[in-house]
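Worked example 2:
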Amino acid sequence: RADMAADPRYTSISGRTENIDYLYGFLAAPFPTTATAEWERLLAEADRLCVFVRRQCQPDGSIRISEGADPAGANEYPGLALTALVANAVARPDPSKADAASKGLAYYRAAFRTAPHPHLAAALIPAFAEVHLQNRHAEAGAAVFELADWLCGVQ
């Protein structure tokens, strides 16, 4: 819905986190009524997004942020990009996505330890959790707890 794009409850990671129950319900509502052809179209669009994200992935695991992007996004965009890659890998497995996620895990966990930030932690936790769920990646599971524990400590 276009009106949600300007709604202050959804324009920041903290707002989305506070309203996560509504967002999950909103996102889940169309699942039972969506036709197969529409799912294929949506998956193709997700694939296009993943190709773009994959091109932004650097050899060291970092994700290049576009010049002129919101500077605060440096703490949000990498987690969102990694989450998109990992989530898309469920429907469309590809070794390059797993490789980017693994490198991103190492890079951003180290970056978080160097300069912890609540938005970085909140954006990375879903990506790390999904990596752990898909691959039983012990480091990803440990990172989820590390970041979540840190967030709890700053509340």
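The first helix runs from residue 2 to 5. The chain has a mean pLDDT of 87.
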